[in-house]
Design goal:
Helix content is about 55%, strand content about 10%. By secondary structure, the chain is an alpha+beta fold. It has three domains: about 180 residues, Hypothetical protein af1432 (Orthogonal Bundle), CATH 1.10.3210.10; about 140 residues, 2-Layer Sandwich (Beta Polymerase, domain 2), CATH 3.30.460.10; about 160 residues, Ubiquitin-like (UB roll) (Roll). The strands form three sheets. A five-stranded mixed sheet has the order 1-2-5-4-3. It has a three-stranded antiparallel sheet with strand order 9-8-10. The longest helix has about 35 residues.
Amino acid sequence: MTLHEITSLLKNPSVSELALVSKAYIFAEQAHREHIRYSGEPYFNHLCETAKLIAELGADASTVAAGFLHDTIEDVNVKPETIRKEFGSEVLMLVEGVTKLGRLRYRGVDRYSESMRRLFIASSKDLRVLIIKLCDRLHNMRTLSYVPKHKQLRIAKETLDIYAPIAHRLGIRKINRELEELSFPYAYPAEYERVNAELSQKRTELIKKLSKFHKSVLKDLVKQGIQVLFTEERLKGLYSLYYKLKQRDGDFEKIYDVLAIRIIVKTVEDCYRVLGVIHASWRPLPGRIKDYVAFPKPNGYRSLHTTVFTGDGGIVEIQIRTEEMHRESEYGVALHADYKEEERPAKRGRKRRLYSSLISWKGKRDKGDGKTVLNIEDTGNGIPSWVRALGALDRTIGEQEFWEHLREDFFKDRIFIFTPKGDVVDLPTDSSPIDFAYSIHSDIGNHLMGAKINGKLLPIHTTLQNGDIVEILTKKGGKPTQKWLEFARTSIAKKHIRNTLQKLKP
């Protein structure tokens, strides 16, 4: 790959930015000139592909340069001082953020966990570290077939458990989908073969039905004078299908989004017009109409979704969005140029205002860790709250608790809970009002006395469902009990409950 192919992807680069990327390209090529991959190709090819993926996401010149240099410290022993001298402190910070810990000081699982902790800490200060790591992992997955067999399973499962969920929560579906599909056959080979075989039997018929329905939809939209920019047909990915089959007892007929059409239009008004035209001709499935335009997901995703009966025995999901929404759904937070914590004063102010409007409570920040714990994802130029929370994980917790934190609080399936004012709080599935209260603020959790769910007063151990509207009721003299630990699902809630119970001991 030529340097020009990569620099041509940069957005309006200055002369100095082009010079920085060019210098990193040449430096990496020299530093890795004797470094070979498992495939037998020069290691520099991997660095070029990583830098290209970073540039395709719209990242700046410093991030692309760090993409070229991200393995220089770890793999070819370039000293950090050399990176700083040649490329500056900013590039060095990005490179060190994705560099694993030394092999001599840490070994095995301990080294891996500490490297992940360090990655999260660096990412909580500058999100570009995660962008580099995701692009690095994506190209590694594209070439996983060359890696020794005994390493393939570990790498694939690690990708499914950590990196694909990170990409999804950042809204970078373009990377998330590919990571899932590339990992699936290595992580679960038997399941992959079974799902692939089942879909292959139906594929021709399904595509035929989808194309026929697609043409009918376009005809109706033309009749109504709606300008469609472009459309896409989609057959559900194998890993996504496998995941849904697990939730539906393996029943293929219970999955309603195997077939999908994406319709891209010019304006938000056109989105709703398209929805009206479709519902005028095809009956929608009850409960399958979702308005993520009026109520975006916490990671910023916007789109109208509906699922309809096609009239010939088929069911198709339809996604309707503008071109801007489509870019956001594919690239998520990577669309934004600046991810640095120190340049977020306006965002901090906005979050404080949002916090105070969310619920009537005077506390501003947790005294224990000095950060707001409101769990609403900030998809502007700032760093999402959950990434900051990852970086703030207690360094003293043990190996098992660390991974429990990741599985339960960050990478588990999510539900979206609404406050009475319409703000959205993102929680793991099976969460209770206790988790909801503590996700807003520890003082609110500690003084919880009851909860109204969809207007009804219900027990605080009630399992919340996606889309519930929850109002937390507090009492000045309220305090948690030992029983709450059985009802709480998130590690954050459990941690605050335990700490408070400890303080209440006579």
